[in-house]
Amino acid sequence: MRNWLRHEQHNPISYASLRIPQSAIRNPQSKLRNLVAVPTLANYLLVSGLLFSLGLAGVLLRRNILVIFMGLELMLNAANLSLVAFSRFNVLDGLPNYNGQVFVFFIITVAAAEVAVGLAIIVALFRAKQTTHVEDLDTLKF
Amino acid sequence: MQLALFCAFSILTLISAAGVVFLRSPVNSAMCLVLSFVGLAALFVTLDAFFIGVIQVLVYAGAVMVLFLFIIMLLDLRAEKRRSVKLSSWVGGGIVIGGFVAALTQVLASLPALQATKPPLSNPAVNDVAAVGELLFLKYNLPFQIIGVLLLVATIGVVVLSRKELK
Questions:
Q1: Contact A91 B18 (CB under 8 A)
Q2: Is A92 helix (H, G, I), strand (E, B) or coil?
Q3: Confidence tier at B166 by pLDDT (50, 70, 90)
Q4: Could you give the CA distance from residue B167 to residue B164 in angstroms, rounded to a whole number?
Q5: How many CA atoms lie within 13 A of A82 on its CB side?
Q6: Taking the alpha carbons of B92, B93, B94, B100 in that order, is the dihedral positive or negative?
Q7: CB < 8 Å to A65, chain B
Q8: DSSP label at A90?
Q9: A122 neighbors A128 (Cβ within 8 angstroms)
């Protein structure tokens, strides 16, 4: 599986068939390297940022408290994606920097605990007020 | 090939995330969220983070989404009625999100360090579950135990919250 994924990146024959000079492959700054189609760190960070802003839009624009909660989960996952991307692109001794992945593990665990407590609070709220619409919940409004 | 897979999975993730935000019924939103999490797990796999990808599917697409759907079923939620969303909320949201995306694209385009492609790994067959586990039990042993206590506290909190009479 892993070899299959890396096949075209590590096999010099496939580079030769693309007629790209070897110097362009060794030098990461070269523009020619972009011809060997692999995503850059900026691509991953852009996807992560767009995912974060979609989650933020969900929190700001939706009025159902459950959907607001889903937007929160989207934002947490966007942060996870950028952490994993940084971990993979910051190679130490030929290995990804696993500190980032451990951090993502902790975030996922905390998010699971947060979902459990948050949904319990929403159920208790529904029991008391019979609604999940945030505009109906104005008891604490000044 | 790698770029094509990356594009396919990121488009899947982003479109289903947009579905979470813009579909009216909470059940449809939850289903879109599952799709988005699965696409994200595939993106983790393209970054050689196999362990995180599997955890993502198990915890998010499995446990968390079952919990969400269960609560939606329990509360018998209907589709949001077409209540007029305040103009100020649209304008505020648009300004914040547009500004964030504009700043992000500018920063991403201006820094040459971010244009780097993935550096090759020395040993492609490395066992990343073992590597993450070793870090977790040696370097991050104390945070790992604290997170165990956090899960215990969350469990007790949920039990207390869902009792019949809250005093």
A1: no
A2: strand
A3: low
A4: 10
A5: 17
A6: positive
A7: none
A8: S
A9: no
Q: Are B27 and B72 a contacting pair, CB within 8 Å?
A: yes
Report CA A24 to chain centroid distance, whole Å: 30
Closest CA to B93 of A30, A16, A85, A56: A56
- Give the whole-angstrom CA distance, residue B60 versus residue B65: 6
Q: What is the ipTM of this complex?
A: 0.89
**Burial label, B67 (beta-carbon count in 10 A; 0-12, 13-18, 19+):** middle
Q: In one letter, which amino acid is A2?
A: R
A12-28 pLDDT per residue, tens: 434 344 444 455 455 55
Which of residues 58 through 117 in chain A touch B, CB cutoff 8 A? 58, 60-64, 66-67, 69-71, 73-74, 77, 80-81, 84-85, 87-89, 91, 93-96, 98-99, 101-102, 104-106, 108-117
Taking each continuous run of H as one helix and of E as one strand, the counts in chain A are 6, 0
| Nearest Cα residue to B49 out of B134, B126, B152 | B126
Tens digit of each residue's pLDDT (9 = 90 or more) over A91-109: 888 888 899 999 999 999 9
Distance to chain B for A138, nearest Cα, Å: 16
Residue type, B50: F
Residue with tokens 């104005």: A138
- Contact between residue B119 and residue A89 where contact means Cβ atoms under 8 Å apart: yes
Whether A16 has its CB under 8 Å from any CB of chain B: the answer is no
Please judge whether A33 and B83 are an interchain contact, meaning their C-beta atoms are less than 8 angstroms apart: no
Residue pair A110/B150 in contact (Cβ under 8 Å)? The answer is: yes
For helices B141-161 and A98-129, what crossing angle results, to 10°? 10
Cβ-Cβ contacts under 8 Å for A77 (sequence gap 6 or more): A51, A55, B36, B37, B40, B56, B60
By the 10 Å C-beta count (0-12 exposed, 13-18 middle, 19+ buried), B99 is classed as exposed
